[in-house]
Amino acid sequence: MDSTTLHEEINSFFESAPPLKDSVKIADKLNQFVQFDSPSSEGKGRRVVCVTSGGTTVPLEQRCVRYIDNFSSGNRGAASTEYFIKAGYKVIFLYRRGTCQPYCRSLPEDPLLECFELADDSDFQVRQSHSEAVKGAIRNNHAAVAGGLLLKIPFTTIFEYLQMLRMIASSMRSLERHAMFYLAAAVSDFYVPWKSMAEHKIQSASGPLDMRLMQVPKMLSVLRTEWTPMAFCISFKLETDSKILLEKANMALKKYKMHSVVANELLTRKEEVTVVTENGNISVLRDKTRPGSDVEDPLIELLVKNHSTYIEDGST
Amino acid sequence: MDSTTLHEEINSFFESAPPLKDSVKIADKLNQFVQFDSPSSEGKGRRVVCVTSGGTTVPLEQRCVRYIDNFSSGNRGAASTEYFIKAGYKVIFLYRRGTCQPYCRSLPEDPLLECFELADDSDFQVRQSHSEAVKGAIRNNHAAVAGGLLLKIPFTTIFEYLQMLRMIASSMRSLERHAMFYLAAAVSDFYVPWKSMAEHKIQSASGPLDMRLMQVPKMLSVLRTEWTPMAFCISFKLETDSKILLEKANMALKKYKMHSVVANELLTRKEEVTVVTENGNISVLRDKTRPGSDVEDPLIELLVKNHSTYIEDGST
Protein backbone atom coordinates (compact mmCIF):
# COMPACT_ATOMS: atom_id res chain seq x y z
CA MET A 1 0.00 0.00 0.00
CA ASP A 2 1.45 3.41 -0.83
CA SER A 3 1.67 5.98 1.93
CA THR A 4 -0.99 8.28 0.45
CA THR A 5 -3.60 5.54 0.71
CA LEU A 6 -2.51 4.71 4.29
CA HIS A 7 -2.81 8.37 5.27
CA GLU A 8 -6.25 8.57 3.74
CA GLU A 9 -7.33 5.47 5.65
CA ILE A 10 -5.91 6.82 8.91
CA ASN A 11 -7.63 10.18 8.44
CA SER A 12 -10.87 8.44 7.69
CA PHE A 13 -10.52 6.24 10.80
CA PHE A 14 -9.94 9.21 13.12
CA GLU A 15 -12.61 11.34 11.43
CA SER A 16 -15.14 8.55 11.79
CA ALA A 17 -14.26 7.98 15.48
CA PRO A 18 -16.55 9.34 18.20
CA PRO A 19 -14.77 12.25 19.97
CA LEU A 20 -12.70 11.32 23.02
CA LYS A 21 -14.13 12.39 26.38
CA ASP A 22 -11.81 14.31 28.74
CA SER A 23 -9.15 14.70 26.07
CA VAL A 24 -7.95 18.03 27.50
CA LYS A 25 -7.62 16.57 30.99
CA ILE A 26 -5.73 13.54 29.69
CA ALA A 27 -3.36 15.74 27.65
CA ASP A 28 -2.62 17.84 30.74
CA LYS A 29 -1.87 14.79 32.85
CA LEU A 30 0.40 13.36 30.16
CA ASN A 31 2.34 16.55 29.69
CA GLN A 32 2.86 16.96 33.43
CA PHE A 33 4.00 13.37 33.79
CA VAL A 34 6.39 13.47 30.84
CA GLN A 35 7.75 17.03 30.94
CA PHE A 36 8.90 16.73 34.50
CA ASP A 37 11.60 14.44 33.19
CA SER A 38 12.51 15.83 29.80
CA PRO A 39 16.03 14.82 28.95
CA SER A 40 18.48 17.47 30.05
CA SER A 41 20.83 18.97 27.50
CA GLU A 42 23.24 16.11 28.26
CA GLY A 43 20.53 13.63 27.30
CA LYS A 44 20.47 12.12 30.77
CA GLY A 45 16.75 12.41 31.52
CA ARG A 46 14.67 9.62 32.94
CA ARG A 47 13.43 7.08 30.42
CA VAL A 48 9.69 6.84 29.87
CA VAL A 49 7.91 3.81 28.47
CA CYS A 50 4.30 3.60 27.30
CA VAL A 51 3.03 0.09 28.08
CA THR A 52 -0.27 -0.81 26.37
CA SER A 53 -2.26 -3.66 27.88
CA GLY A 54 -5.48 -5.64 27.42
CA GLY A 55 -7.72 -6.02 24.37
CA THR A 56 -9.62 -3.34 22.47
CA THR A 57 -13.33 -3.58 21.70
CA VAL A 58 -15.04 -2.82 18.39
CA PRO A 59 -18.61 -1.54 18.83
CA LEU A 60 -21.14 -3.04 16.41
CA GLU A 61 -23.84 -0.51 17.30
CA GLN A 62 -23.56 3.21 18.09
CA ARG A 63 -25.54 2.91 21.29
CA CYS A 64 -23.31 0.11 22.28
CA VAL A 65 -24.95 -3.16 23.29
CA ARG A 66 -22.88 -5.56 21.19
CA TYR A 67 -19.21 -5.39 20.37
CA ILE A 68 -16.32 -7.58 19.28
CA ASP A 69 -13.62 -8.00 21.88
CA ASN A 70 -10.00 -9.12 21.56
CA PHE A 71 -9.34 -11.25 24.60
CA SER A 72 -6.41 -10.36 26.81
CA SER A 73 -6.17 -10.60 30.59
CA GLY A 74 -3.64 -7.77 30.70
CA ASN A 75 -1.28 -9.92 32.73
CA ARG A 76 1.68 -9.31 30.40
CA GLY A 77 1.27 -5.53 30.50
CA ALA A 78 0.80 -5.43 34.28
CA ALA A 79 3.86 -7.64 34.95
CA SER A 80 6.02 -5.72 32.48
CA THR A 81 5.04 -2.42 34.09
CA GLU A 82 6.32 -3.67 37.44
CA TYR A 83 9.69 -4.67 35.93
CA PHE A 84 10.07 -1.40 33.99
CA ILE A 85 9.49 0.59 37.19
CA LYS A 86 12.00 -1.61 39.01
CA ALA A 87 14.49 -0.81 36.21
CA GLY A 88 14.02 2.93 36.82
CA TYR A 89 11.57 3.76 34.02
CA LYS A 90 8.52 5.97 34.34
CA VAL A 91 5.54 4.09 32.92
CA ILE A 92 2.43 5.35 31.13
CA PHE A 93 0.12 2.33 31.52
CA LEU A 94 -2.54 2.51 28.79
CA TYR A 95 -4.84 -0.33 29.82
CA ARG A 96 -8.21 -1.83 29.04
CA ARG A 97 -10.74 -1.11 31.81
CA GLY A 98 -11.18 -4.11 34.10
CA THR A 99 -7.96 -5.92 33.14
CA CYS A 100 -5.08 -6.92 35.40
CA GLN A 101 -3.35 -4.07 37.26
CA PRO A 102 0.34 -3.77 38.22
CA TYR A 103 1.08 -5.25 41.70
CA CYS A 104 -2.35 -6.93 41.77
CA ARG A 105 -1.51 -10.07 39.79
CA SER A 106 -1.58 -12.43 42.75
CA LEU A 107 -4.89 -11.18 44.10
CA PRO A 108 -8.07 -13.21 43.58
CA GLU A 109 -10.65 -12.08 41.00
CA ASP A 110 -12.87 -10.28 43.50
CA PRO A 111 -10.36 -9.05 46.12
CA LEU A 112 -12.76 -7.29 48.45
CA LEU A 113 -15.08 -10.25 48.95
CA GLU A 114 -12.35 -12.89 48.86
CA CYS A 115 -9.52 -11.25 50.84
CA PHE A 116 -11.48 -9.89 53.79
CA GLU A 117 -13.59 -11.44 56.51
CA LEU A 118 -15.80 -10.26 59.33
CA ALA A 119 -13.97 -9.72 62.60
CA ASP A 120 -17.15 -9.03 64.53
CA ASP A 121 -20.51 -7.46 63.73
CA SER A 122 -19.12 -4.06 62.94
CA ASP A 123 -15.61 -4.65 61.70
CA PHE A 124 -13.63 -6.71 59.21
CA GLN A 125 -10.05 -7.76 58.62
CA VAL A 126 -7.84 -9.12 55.86
CA ARG A 127 -7.69 -12.93 55.76
CA GLN A 128 -4.34 -14.27 56.90
CA SER A 129 -3.90 -16.19 53.62
CA HIS A 130 -4.12 -13.00 51.54
CA SER A 131 -2.42 -10.63 53.95
CA GLU A 132 0.92 -10.37 52.12
CA ALA A 133 -0.67 -10.03 48.65
CA VAL A 134 -3.04 -7.28 49.82
CA LYS A 135 -0.34 -5.34 51.69
CA GLY A 136 2.05 -5.63 48.76
CA ALA A 137 -0.55 -4.43 46.25
CA ILE A 138 -1.50 -1.36 48.26
CA ARG A 139 2.07 -0.48 49.25
CA ASN A 140 3.70 -0.93 45.83
CA ASN A 141 0.89 0.72 43.90
CA HIS A 142 0.98 3.69 46.27
CA ALA A 143 4.76 4.01 45.99
CA ALA A 144 4.66 3.95 42.18
CA VAL A 145 1.77 6.39 41.74
CA ALA A 146 2.72 8.82 44.53
CA GLY A 147 6.38 8.65 43.43
CA GLY A 148 5.42 9.87 39.95
CA LEU A 149 6.59 6.65 38.29
CA LEU A 150 3.21 5.34 37.15
CA LEU A 151 0.41 7.06 35.23
CA LYS A 152 -2.63 4.91 34.46
CA ILE A 153 -4.93 5.70 31.53
CA PRO A 154 -7.92 3.39 30.82
CA PHE A 155 -9.57 2.66 27.47
CA THR A 156 -12.31 0.36 26.20
CA THR A 157 -12.87 0.75 22.45
CA ILE A 158 -10.40 0.70 19.55
CA PHE A 159 -11.39 4.35 18.95
CA GLU A 160 -10.35 5.40 22.45
CA TYR A 161 -7.19 3.30 22.32
CA LEU A 162 -5.81 4.76 19.09
CA GLN A 163 -6.77 8.34 19.93
CA MET A 164 -5.05 8.04 23.31
CA LEU A 165 -1.99 6.35 21.83
CA ARG A 166 -1.64 9.29 19.43
CA MET A 167 -1.86 11.76 22.34
CA ILE A 168 0.74 9.83 24.33
CA ALA A 169 3.07 9.70 21.33
CA SER A 170 2.71 13.43 20.89
CA SER A 171 3.54 14.10 24.54
CA MET A 172 6.56 11.73 24.45
CA ARG A 173 8.00 13.03 21.19
CA SER A 174 10.34 15.48 22.95
CA LEU A 175 11.97 12.64 24.89
CA GLU A 176 13.50 11.43 21.63
CA ARG A 177 15.52 8.25 22.17
CA HIS A 178 14.63 8.06 25.87
CA ALA A 179 11.06 7.19 24.91
CA MET A 180 9.96 3.59 24.50
CA PHE A 181 6.72 2.07 23.26
CA TYR A 182 5.94 -1.45 24.51
CA LEU A 183 2.77 -2.33 22.62
CA ALA A 184 1.43 -5.41 24.40
CA ALA A 185 -2.28 -4.59 23.94
CA ALA A 186 -4.31 -6.94 21.75
CA VAL A 187 -5.57 -4.48 19.16
CA SER A 188 -8.42 -5.41 16.86
CA ASP A 189 -7.53 -5.80 13.19
CA PHE A 190 -11.08 -5.08 12.06
CA TYR A 191 -13.66 -2.43 12.86
CA VAL A 192 -17.03 -1.05 11.82
CA PRO A 193 -16.73 2.62 10.81
CA TRP A 194 -18.75 4.68 13.31
CA LYS A 195 -20.90 6.33 10.66
CA SER A 196 -21.88 3.12 8.88
CA MET A 197 -22.76 1.54 12.24
CA ALA A 198 -26.36 0.78 13.14
CA GLU A 199 -27.67 3.52 15.41
CA HIS A 200 -29.97 1.14 17.26
CA LYS A 201 -29.62 -2.42 18.45
CA ILE A 202 -29.35 -4.86 15.55
CA GLN A 203 -32.63 -6.77 15.37
CA SER A 204 -32.50 -10.54 15.28
CA ALA A 205 -34.48 -11.30 12.14
CA SER A 206 -35.32 -14.79 10.99
CA GLY A 207 -32.03 -15.64 9.34
CA PRO A 208 -28.31 -15.63 10.05
CA LEU A 209 -26.49 -12.33 10.59
CA ASP A 210 -23.97 -11.28 7.97
CA MET A 211 -21.40 -8.71 8.95
CA ARG A 212 -18.68 -6.89 7.06
CA LEU A 213 -15.78 -5.48 9.05
CA MET A 214 -13.13 -3.11 7.65
CA GLN A 215 -9.43 -3.40 8.38
CA VAL A 216 -8.08 -1.03 11.02
CA PRO A 217 -5.33 0.99 9.27
CA LYS A 218 -1.84 -0.01 10.40
CA MET A 219 -1.07 2.70 12.94
CA LEU A 220 2.26 1.12 13.92
CA SER A 221 3.80 2.57 10.76
CA VAL A 222 2.76 6.14 11.52
CA LEU A 223 3.57 5.82 15.23
CA ARG A 224 7.09 4.73 14.28
CA THR A 225 7.79 7.08 11.39
CA GLU A 226 5.73 10.19 12.19
CA TRP A 227 4.26 10.40 15.69
CA THR A 228 7.51 9.59 17.54
CA PRO A 229 10.23 8.89 14.97
CA MET A 230 13.02 8.66 17.58
CA ALA A 231 11.31 6.36 20.13
CA PHE A 232 12.39 2.76 20.69
CA CYS A 233 9.44 0.63 19.55
CA ILE A 234 8.51 -2.90 20.58
CA SER A 235 5.39 -4.58 19.23
CA PHE A 236 3.90 -8.00 19.96
CA LYS A 237 2.77 -10.83 17.76
CA LEU A 238 0.42 -13.41 19.27
CA GLU A 239 -0.59 -16.49 17.32
CA THR A 240 -2.24 -19.77 18.23
CA ASP A 241 -0.39 -21.58 15.44
CA SER A 242 3.32 -21.88 16.22
CA LYS A 243 4.14 -22.75 12.60
CA ILE A 244 3.44 -19.25 11.31
CA LEU A 245 4.48 -17.27 14.40
CA LEU A 246 8.10 -16.34 13.66
CA GLU A 247 7.39 -15.65 10.01
CA LYS A 248 4.59 -13.24 10.95
CA ALA A 249 6.77 -11.59 13.61
CA ASN A 250 9.55 -11.05 11.05
CA MET A 251 7.09 -9.56 8.59
CA ALA A 252 5.83 -7.13 11.25
CA LEU A 253 9.42 -6.14 12.16
CA LYS A 254 10.13 -5.12 8.58
CA LYS A 255 6.75 -3.73 7.60
CA TYR A 256 6.41 -1.43 10.62
CA LYS A 257 10.15 -0.80 11.15
CA MET A 258 9.91 -1.93 14.79
CA HIS A 259 13.11 -2.21 16.83
CA SER A 260 11.90 -5.56 18.18
CA VAL A 261 8.86 -7.77 17.85
CA VAL A 262 8.06 -10.06 20.79
CA ALA A 263 6.62 -13.28 19.35
CA ASN A 264 4.43 -15.39 21.62
CA GLU A 265 2.13 -18.34 21.30
CA LEU A 266 -1.17 -18.41 23.16
CA LEU A 267 -0.57 -21.63 25.10
CA THR A 268 3.07 -21.08 26.13
CA ARG A 269 3.14 -17.30 26.43
CA LYS A 270 3.78 -17.29 30.18
CA GLU A 271 6.82 -19.57 29.83
CA GLU A 272 8.59 -18.44 26.69
CA VAL A 273 8.74 -15.60 24.17
CA THR A 274 11.05 -14.87 21.25
CA VAL A 275 12.48 -11.40 20.76
CA VAL A 276 12.80 -10.89 17.02
CA THR A 277 15.24 -8.17 15.87
CA GLU A 278 17.12 -7.23 12.72
CA ASN A 279 20.17 -9.01 14.14
CA GLY A 280 18.38 -12.29 14.83
CA ASN A 281 16.05 -13.95 17.30
CA ILE A 282 16.59 -14.39 21.02
CA SER A 283 14.54 -16.90 22.95
CA VAL A 284 13.60 -15.72 26.47
CA LEU A 285 12.54 -18.30 29.06
CA ARG A 286 11.00 -17.98 32.49
CA ASP A 287 13.41 -19.05 35.23
CA LYS A 288 11.74 -22.31 36.23
CA THR A 289 14.06 -22.80 39.20
CA ARG A 290 12.43 -19.82 40.96
CA PRO A 291 8.82 -20.52 41.91
CA GLY A 292 6.50 -17.67 40.95
CA SER A 293 9.02 -16.09 38.59
CA ASP A 294 7.84 -14.29 35.45
CA VAL A 295 9.04 -14.49 31.85
CA GLU A 296 8.67 -10.68 31.89
CA ASP A 297 11.64 -10.46 34.30
CA PRO A 298 14.34 -11.58 31.77
CA LEU A 299 12.32 -10.06 28.90
CA ILE A 300 12.35 -6.52 30.32
CA GLU A 301 16.03 -6.94 31.33
CA LEU A 302 16.90 -7.70 27.69
CA LEU A 303 14.79 -4.87 26.27
CA VAL A 304 16.21 -2.34 28.73
CA LYS A 305 19.73 -3.37 27.65
CA ASN A 306 18.77 -2.99 23.99
CA HIS A 307 17.22 0.41 24.75
CA SER A 308 20.47 1.52 26.42
CA THR A 309 22.45 0.53 23.33
CA TYR A 310 19.95 2.43 21.19
CA ILE A 311 20.34 5.58 23.33
CA GLU A 312 24.15 5.29 23.21
CA ASP A 313 24.10 4.82 19.43
CA GLY A 314 22.25 8.11 19.15
CA SER A 315 24.77 10.08 21.17
CA THR A 316 27.81 9.13 19.08
CA MET B 1 -41.17 -22.45 13.52
CA ASP B 2 -42.57 -25.88 14.39
CA SER B 3 -41.36 -27.55 17.55
CA THR B 4 -39.49 -30.34 15.76
CA THR B 5 -37.23 -27.80 14.07
CA LEU B 6 -36.69 -25.96 17.35
CA HIS B 7 -35.71 -29.19 19.08
CA GLU B 8 -33.31 -30.04 16.30
CA GLU B 9 -31.73 -26.61 16.57
CA ILE B 10 -31.43 -26.91 20.34
CA ASN B 11 -29.87 -30.37 20.12
CA SER B 12 -27.44 -29.13 17.53
CA PHE B 13 -26.52 -26.14 19.73
CA PHE B 14 -25.79 -28.29 22.78
CA GLU B 15 -24.01 -30.97 20.76
CA SER B 16 -21.78 -28.36 19.15
CA ALA B 17 -20.94 -26.73 22.50
CA PRO B 18 -17.57 -27.41 24.16
CA PRO B 19 -18.16 -29.55 27.27
CA LEU B 20 -18.69 -27.67 30.53
CA LYS B 21 -15.85 -27.84 33.04
CA ASP B 22 -16.73 -28.84 36.62
CA SER B 23 -20.27 -29.79 35.67
CA VAL B 24 -20.46 -32.50 38.37
CA LYS B 25 -19.28 -30.08 41.06
CA ILE B 26 -21.77 -27.43 39.95
CA ALA B 27 -24.64 -29.94 39.90
CA ASP B 28 -23.77 -31.04 43.46
CA LYS B 29 -23.72 -27.46 44.71
CA LEU B 30 -27.04 -26.73 43.04
CA ASN B 31 -28.77 -29.79 44.43
CA GLN B 32 -27.52 -29.07 47.94
CA PHE B 33 -28.62 -25.46 47.74
CA VAL B 34 -32.06 -26.24 46.34
CA GLN B 35 -32.99 -29.51 48.03
CA PHE B 36 -32.46 -28.15 51.49
CA ASP B 37 -35.61 -26.15 50.92
CA SER B 38 -37.85 -28.37 48.84
CA PRO B 39 -41.45 -27.43 49.41
CA SER B 40 -42.92 -29.50 52.18
CA SER B 41 -46.03 -31.50 51.47
CA GLU B 42 -48.05 -28.41 52.39
CA GLY B 43 -46.24 -26.48 49.68
CA LYS B 44 -44.77 -24.01 52.18
CA GLY B 45 -41.08 -24.30 51.25
CA ARG B 46 -38.80 -21.37 50.74
CA ARG B 47 -38.99 -19.74 47.33
CA VAL B 48 -35.91 -19.93 45.12
CA VAL B 49 -35.17 -17.56 42.27
CA CYS B 50 -32.50 -17.93 39.61
CA VAL B 51 -31.26 -14.43 38.70
CA THR B 52 -29.15 -14.28 35.52
CA SER B 53 -26.90 -11.27 35.08
CA GLY B 54 -24.39 -9.71 32.67
CA GLY B 55 -23.79 -10.37 28.99
CA THR B 56 -22.74 -13.60 27.29
CA THR B 57 -19.81 -13.85 24.89
CA VAL B 58 -19.73 -15.63 21.55
CA PRO B 59 -16.26 -16.98 20.66
CA LEU B 60 -15.20 -16.43 17.05
CA GLU B 61 -12.22 -18.77 17.30
CA GLN B 62 -11.83 -22.08 19.15
CA ARG B 63 -8.68 -20.98 20.91
CA CYS B 64 -10.41 -17.89 21.93
CA VAL B 65 -8.73 -14.60 21.09
CA ARG B 66 -11.69 -12.76 19.55
CA TYR B 67 -15.31 -12.90 20.57
CA ILE B 68 -18.54 -10.93 20.35
CA ASP B 69 -19.79 -9.59 23.65
CA ASN B 70 -23.23 -8.37 24.69
CA PHE B 71 -22.59 -5.43 26.96
CA SER B 72 -24.15 -5.46 30.40
CA SER B 73 -22.70 -4.13 33.65
CA GLY B 74 -24.71 -6.62 35.68
CA ASN B 75 -26.03 -3.83 37.87
CA ARG B 76 -29.68 -4.88 37.39
CA GLY B 77 -29.02 -8.49 38.37
CA ALA B 78 -26.89 -7.56 41.39
CA ALA B 79 -29.45 -5.05 42.71
CA SER B 80 -32.37 -7.43 42.12
CA THR B 81 -30.53 -10.22 43.99
CA GLU B 82 -30.26 -7.97 47.06
CA TYR B 83 -34.01 -7.22 47.01
CA PHE B 84 -34.98 -10.86 46.45
CA ILE B 85 -32.90 -11.91 49.47
CA LYS B 86 -34.46 -9.10 51.51
CA ALA B 87 -37.88 -10.49 50.48
CA GLY B 88 -36.93 -13.93 51.85
CA TYR B 89 -35.94 -15.68 48.62
CA LYS B 90 -32.94 -17.93 48.14
CA VAL B 91 -31.05 -16.73 45.06
CA ILE B 92 -28.99 -18.65 42.50
CA PHE B 93 -26.97 -15.81 40.96
CA LEU B 94 -25.82 -16.91 37.47
CA TYR B 95 -23.51 -14.06 36.53
CA ARG B 96 -20.95 -13.08 33.92
CA ARG B 97 -17.43 -13.15 35.33
CA GLY B 98 -16.20 -9.66 36.21
CA THR B 99 -19.63 -7.98 36.34
CA CYS B 100 -21.26 -6.20 39.27
CA GLN B 101 -21.78 -8.29 42.43
CA PRO B 102 -24.60 -8.04 45.00
CA TYR B 103 -23.81 -5.60 47.84
CA CYS B 104 -20.85 -4.19 45.88
CA ARG B 105 -22.69 -1.71 43.70
CA SER B 106 -21.47 1.39 45.50
CA LEU B 107 -17.83 0.35 45.50
CA PRO B 108 -15.37 1.93 43.04
CA GLU B 109 -14.17 -0.07 40.01
CA ASP B 110 -10.94 -1.22 41.63
CA PRO B 111 -11.90 -1.50 45.32
CA LEU B 112 -8.60 -2.68 46.72
CA LEU B 113 -6.50 0.13 45.26
CA GLU B 114 -9.15 2.83 45.68
CA CYS B 115 -10.66 2.00 49.10
CA PHE B 116 -7.50 1.38 51.10
CA GLU B 117 -4.51 3.50 52.02
CA LEU B 118 -1.19 3.01 53.74
CA ALA B 119 -1.31 3.53 57.49
CA ASP B 120 2.45 3.18 57.88
CA ASP B 121 5.18 1.24 56.12
CA SER B 122 3.81 -2.13 57.02
CA ASP B 123 0.09 -1.68 57.42
CA PHE B 124 -2.94 -0.28 55.61
CA GLN B 125 -6.46 0.83 56.43
CA VAL B 126 -9.75 1.50 54.71
CA ARG B 127 -10.21 5.13 53.60
CA GLN B 128 -12.76 6.99 55.71
CA SER B 129 -14.76 7.92 52.59
CA HIS B 130 -15.29 4.25 51.63
CA SER B 131 -15.56 2.79 55.12
CA GLU B 132 -19.33 2.24 55.14
CA ALA B 133 -19.45 0.84 51.59
CA VAL B 134 -16.63 -1.63 52.28
CA LYS B 135 -18.05 -2.77 55.63
CA GLY B 136 -21.54 -3.16 54.15
CA ALA B 137 -20.26 -5.19 51.19
CA ILE B 138 -18.28 -7.64 53.33
CA ARG B 139 -20.96 -7.97 56.04
CA ASN B 140 -23.99 -8.38 53.74
CA ASN B 141 -22.22 -10.71 51.32
CA HIS B 142 -21.03 -12.86 54.19
CA ALA B 143 -24.50 -12.99 55.76
CA ALA B 144 -26.14 -14.02 52.47
CA VAL B 145 -23.58 -16.68 51.49
CA ALA B 146 -23.01 -18.13 54.97
CA GLY B 147 -26.76 -18.05 55.63
CA GLY B 148 -27.39 -20.27 52.60
CA LEU B 149 -29.39 -17.58 50.80
CA LEU B 150 -26.99 -16.87 47.95
CA LEU B 151 -25.23 -19.24 45.55
CA LYS B 152 -23.02 -17.61 42.93
CA ILE B 153 -22.22 -19.35 39.63
CA PRO B 154 -20.04 -17.54 37.05
CA PHE B 155 -20.12 -17.90 33.25
CA THR B 156 -18.42 -16.26 30.29
CA THR B 157 -19.57 -17.74 26.97
CA ILE B 158 -23.07 -18.35 25.62
CA PHE B 159 -22.21 -22.08 25.69
CA GLU B 160 -21.48 -22.02 29.43
CA TYR B 161 -24.51 -19.83 30.14
CA LEU B 162 -27.07 -22.06 28.43
CA GLN B 163 -25.60 -25.31 29.73
CA MET B 164 -25.63 -23.94 33.28
CA LEU B 165 -29.14 -22.54 32.92
CA ARG B 166 -30.34 -26.00 31.88
CA MET B 167 -28.65 -27.56 34.94
CA ILE B 168 -30.20 -24.97 37.25
CA ALA B 169 -33.64 -25.54 35.72
CA SER B 170 -33.26 -29.27 36.23
CA SER B 171 -32.31 -28.80 39.90
CA MET B 172 -35.21 -26.36 40.51
CA ARG B 173 -37.87 -28.43 38.76
CA SER B 174 -38.99 -30.11 41.98
CA LEU B 175 -39.77 -26.73 43.56
CA GLU B 176 -42.69 -26.40 41.15
CA ARG B 177 -44.48 -23.07 41.63
CA HIS B 178 -42.02 -21.91 44.31
CA ALA B 179 -39.34 -21.58 41.63
CA MET B 180 -38.80 -18.34 39.77
CA PHE B 181 -36.57 -17.44 36.83
CA TYR B 182 -35.57 -13.80 36.55
CA LEU B 183 -33.64 -13.69 33.28
CA ALA B 184 -31.87 -10.34 33.32
CA ALA B 185 -28.72 -11.50 31.48
CA ALA B 186 -28.05 -10.02 28.05
CA VAL B 187 -27.93 -13.19 25.98
CA SER B 188 -26.48 -13.15 22.49
CA ASP B 189 -28.96 -13.75 19.65
CA PHE B 190 -26.24 -15.00 17.31
CA TYR B 191 -23.40 -17.48 17.60
CA VAL B 192 -20.77 -19.33 15.60
CA PRO B 193 -21.24 -23.12 15.92
CA TRP B 194 -18.17 -24.50 17.73
CA LYS B 195 -17.32 -26.99 15.00
CA SER B 196 -17.49 -24.52 12.14
CA MET B 197 -15.32 -22.11 14.11
CA ALA B 198 -11.77 -21.35 13.01
CA GLU B 199 -9.39 -23.43 15.12
CA HIS B 200 -6.69 -20.77 14.94
CA LYS B 201 -6.70 -17.01 15.10
CA ILE B 202 -8.44 -15.49 12.07
CA GLN B 203 -5.73 -13.93 9.90
CA SER B 204 -6.13 -10.35 8.81
CA ALA B 205 -5.79 -10.67 5.06
CA SER B 206 -5.81 -7.74 2.69
CA GLY B 207 -9.56 -7.17 2.52
CA PRO B 208 -12.55 -6.69 4.79
CA LEU B 209 -13.70 -9.56 7.03
CA ASP B 210 -17.06 -11.14 6.25
CA MET B 211 -18.72 -13.15 9.00
CA ARG B 212 -21.88 -15.21 9.12
CA LEU B 213 -23.45 -15.80 12.53
CA MET B 214 -26.26 -18.28 13.20
CA GLN B 215 -29.25 -17.53 15.42
CA VAL B 216 -29.09 -18.96 18.92
CA PRO B 217 -32.18 -21.19 19.26
CA LYS B 218 -34.85 -19.66 21.50
CA MET B 219 -34.21 -21.51 24.76
CA LEU B 220 -36.85 -19.47 26.64
CA SER B 221 -39.54 -21.67 25.07
CA VAL B 222 -38.03 -24.93 26.27
CA LEU B 223 -37.10 -23.52 29.68
CA ARG B 224 -40.72 -22.50 30.15
CA THR B 225 -42.48 -25.52 28.68
CA GLU B 226 -40.06 -28.40 29.30
CA TRP B 227 -37.17 -27.70 31.68
CA THR B 228 -39.31 -26.20 34.47
CA PRO B 229 -42.94 -26.08 33.32
CA MET B 230 -44.26 -24.92 36.73
CA ALA B 231 -41.76 -22.13 37.46
CA PHE B 232 -42.73 -18.45 37.41
CA CYS B 233 -40.76 -16.94 34.52
CA ILE B 234 -39.72 -13.33 33.98
CA SER B 235 -37.66 -12.32 30.96
CA PHE B 236 -36.25 -8.94 29.93
CA LYS B 237 -36.42 -6.92 26.75
CA LEU B 238 -33.84 -4.20 26.25
CA GLU B 239 -34.02 -1.87 23.27
CA THR B 240 -32.36 1.40 22.37
CA ASP B 241 -35.38 2.49 20.33
CA SER B 242 -38.39 3.24 22.57
CA LYS B 243 -40.78 3.11 19.62
CA ILE B 244 -40.51 -0.65 19.20
CA LEU B 245 -39.91 -1.59 22.84
CA LEU B 246 -43.40 -2.46 24.11
CA GLU B 247 -44.35 -4.20 20.90
CA LYS B 248 -41.26 -6.42 21.11
CA ALA B 249 -41.91 -7.11 24.81
CA ASN B 250 -45.48 -8.16 24.04
CA MET B 251 -44.29 -10.45 21.27
CA ALA B 252 -41.81 -12.10 23.66
CA LEU B 253 -44.52 -12.55 26.30
CA LYS B 254 -46.70 -14.50 23.88
CA LYS B 255 -44.02 -16.33 21.93
CA TYR B 256 -42.20 -17.70 24.99
CA LYS B 257 -45.25 -17.89 27.30
CA MET B 258 -43.49 -15.79 29.96
CA HIS B 259 -45.44 -14.74 33.05
CA SER B 260 -44.00 -11.24 32.71
CA VAL B 261 -41.59 -9.42 30.45
CA VAL B 262 -39.72 -6.46 31.91
CA ALA B 263 -39.31 -3.88 29.14
CA ASN B 264 -36.49 -1.37 29.49
CA GLU B 265 -34.79 1.21 27.32
CA LEU B 266 -31.02 1.58 27.41
CA LEU B 267 -30.92 5.25 28.41
CA THR B 268 -33.66 5.27 31.08
CA ARG B 269 -33.32 1.73 32.42
CA LYS B 270 -32.21 2.85 35.90
CA GLU B 271 -35.23 5.12 36.33
CA GLU B 272 -38.14 3.26 34.78
CA VAL B 273 -39.20 -0.16 33.52
CA THR B 274 -42.53 -1.53 32.29
CA VAL B 275 -43.77 -4.89 33.51
CA VAL B 276 -45.70 -6.41 30.60
CA THR B 277 -48.18 -9.17 31.49
CA GLU B 278 -51.23 -10.83 29.94
CA ASN B 279 -53.43 -8.53 32.02
CA GLY B 280 -51.77 -5.33 30.86
CA ASN B 281 -48.69 -3.19 31.44
CA ILE B 282 -47.53 -1.68 34.73
CA SER B 283 -45.01 1.14 34.73
CA VAL B 284 -42.51 0.94 37.62
CA LEU B 285 -40.59 4.07 38.61
CA ARG B 286 -37.65 4.62 40.91
CA ASP B 287 -38.66 6.60 44.03
CA LYS B 288 -36.93 9.90 43.21
CA THR B 289 -37.70 11.37 46.64
CA ARG B 290 -35.26 8.89 48.22
CA PRO B 291 -31.66 9.59 47.21
CA GLY B 292 -29.82 6.43 46.14
CA SER B 293 -33.03 4.42 45.74
CA ASP B 294 -33.26 1.72 43.05
CA VAL B 295 -35.94 0.98 40.47
CA GLU B 296 -35.35 -2.68 41.42
CA ASP B 297 -36.89 -2.00 44.86
CA PRO B 298 -40.50 -1.48 43.63
CA LEU B 299 -39.89 -3.88 40.71
CA ILE B 300 -39.03 -6.85 42.92
CA GLU B 301 -41.86 -5.92 45.30
CA LEU B 302 -44.33 -6.16 42.41
CA LEU B 303 -42.90 -9.42 41.05
CA VAL B 304 -42.89 -11.06 44.50
CA LYS B 305 -46.55 -10.12 44.88
CA ASN B 306 -47.33 -11.60 41.44
CA HIS B 307 -45.37 -14.72 42.34
CA SER B 308 -47.44 -15.09 45.55
CA THR B 309 -50.65 -14.90 43.53
CA TYR B 310 -49.25 -17.49 41.13
CA ILE B 311 -48.43 -19.87 44.01
CA GLU B 312 -51.90 -19.37 45.56
CA ASP B 313 -53.58 -19.99 42.19
CA GLY B 314 -51.81 -23.32 42.04
CA SER B 315 -53.03 -24.48 45.45
CA THR B 316 -56.73 -23.91 44.78
From TrEMBL, chains A, B:
Family (UniProt): Belongs to the PPC synthetase family.
Keyword set for this entry? Answer: Coenzyme A biosynthesis, Ligase
Q: Which PANTHER family match?
A: CORNICHON-RELATED (PTHR12290)
Per the database record, which ranges form the DNA/pantothenate metabolism flavoprotein C-terminal domain?
48-94, 166-285
GO annotations under biological process? coenzyme A biosynthetic process
Named in its record, the pathway it takes part in is: Cofactor biosynthesis; coenzyme A biosynthesis; CoA from (R)-pantothenate: step 2/5
Q: Does the keyword Ligase apply?
A: yes
Recorded GO terms, molecular function? phosphopantothenate--cysteine ligase activity
Descriptive protein name: Phosphopantothenate--cysteine ligase 1
Q: From what organism does this protein derive? A: Hibiscus syriacus
Signal peptide (from-to):
none
Under Pfam families, the record lists: DFP
**InterPro entries, per database record:** CoaB-like_sf, DNA/pantothenate-metab_flavo_C
Which superkingdom does the taxonomy of this entry point to? Eukaryota
